[in-house]
Here is the input.
Amino acid sequence: MSNLTKSIPADERKMLRKAFWRSFTLYAAVSPAKQGASGFCYSLMPFINKFYKNDEEGKKAALTRSMSYFNTTITCSTFIMGLVASMEKKNSEQDDFDASSINAVKSSLMGPLAGIGDSIFWGVLRVIAAGIAVGLGASGNILAPIVFLLLFNIPSILVKYYGTFLGYKLGSEYIQKVYASGLMNILTKAASIVGLIMVGGMTASMVTFNSTFELTMKGESVLNLQNMLDQIFVGIVPLGLTLLCYYLLKKKNISITVLIIGVIILSILLSLLGIA
Amino acid sequence: MLNAFLVALAVFICVGGAELIGFTMLNRPIVIGPLVGLLLGDLHTGVIIGASLEAVFMGVVNIGGASAAEPGIATAVGTAFAIMLGKGSEVALTLALPIGILGLQIKTVLYIFIVGMFAKTFDRLAAEGREKQIIALHYGLWAVNWALYSLFAFFGILFGSDAVSALLDAIPDVVMNGLTVCGGLLPAVGMAMLMKMLWDNKICMFYFLGFVLAAYLDLPLIALAVIGVIIAISIGMNDYRMNQLAAQRVAVSPAGGSDEYLDEEEEEFFS
Here is the structure.
């Protein structure tokens, strides 16, 4: 691990550390439309200032690039930041560098990393840490919150710290080779497969719906809607709703805000109709 | 008054702080419960309520940016009432869920109307290269957003548990039930956001594989991760071999008329 950090020149290491610290604030000004855009821009500023020192226009272009939509698990974000930083460096040095490839790499990686990262850190690590801490806390042990925070944060902050360097190192040395050889497509495809499986699993375990609708005749239940739904397909409502949201988001360009309000209204309607 | 301020402070530090320093889980019940207990002088009750509420809110997660409830304010206000009224953890448990659901709606409104309004401003500042303003806005929006959010906790405690219960009672049961249902369904939006980034018609069947494995076999996420990695590696290796084979073939036969057709076919296959 120390080899990883030592092989990078001292001044760049300093900048990477700065980006690592700044990346904690990634979602400080989170909004539905841009998610962590401003935090990403803020984290990359040390690099942009250095690489485009004598190039005012290049600097503005780089700031604009880094202000684009960014959404991934915060633990994985620094890997992408390191990679983007190394590409910005190349872009500032070479005239023929294709600047649009920077955001292409950024957006092709954030999806798979979010799918994998969210499920590992929110779905697995947090549940383990909370499970242990709840056991301690239930008996009144005041160490419970501290144990919880340490169990969750030590692994995730370590991943985040080394991710910064790994991304940077990988970027400046390999990324173009990887792109030219077509390996990048294979890697993003493989990562997306893991991501999709995890998102599918999370859809089943985290989107929940239980119908309370029941038809009774002479005190006997003749139709239990939830049982019927389960017989057709377990989790048909969460799956259907998630696919519908995806369809509206992707194909109809409905904004997240509208979608959230839509789900709230739908839920209240379901409750009004006595279905849930 | 002092208590209200302390609880609001705990909400600001924990819920706001979690957003400022990268979702470090400060806003979870197991952390904020003991903190409120400490501030109000009853650490023991705080820890116990924090632990039981953590179990209640275990399934409430923040995936892809969408969530089902906001456990932070729920725990802070619930724990505070339990300690101030000396009625034990039942008070906290009955109040926490509705407050958490309401808290999420407040948080969403703040996101949309406070921070969301400045999305264009950020773009403009970036295009003009005004870094200082970007940084100021980045932190400024955070402070305003969470100061406003903490106010709700402040007034909640200030007006007392009777007022809060009355407010919660004033919301019709059917609406409150709807919001609970909404808590279960809302993560769908977060999943959809992740899927928007991941979806590709050629590999979308893996989404359904993950769903079926979790829904029918009740496999935990860690098992899914292992299965996913195995599938991804074997497919990746296969693709890599194909890629190399294709590269070899191109190298052997110099570009000719018939190869173009082949290349096209391969490209389609790999993309």
User: Anything to note?
Assistant: The radius of gyration of chain A is 23 Å.
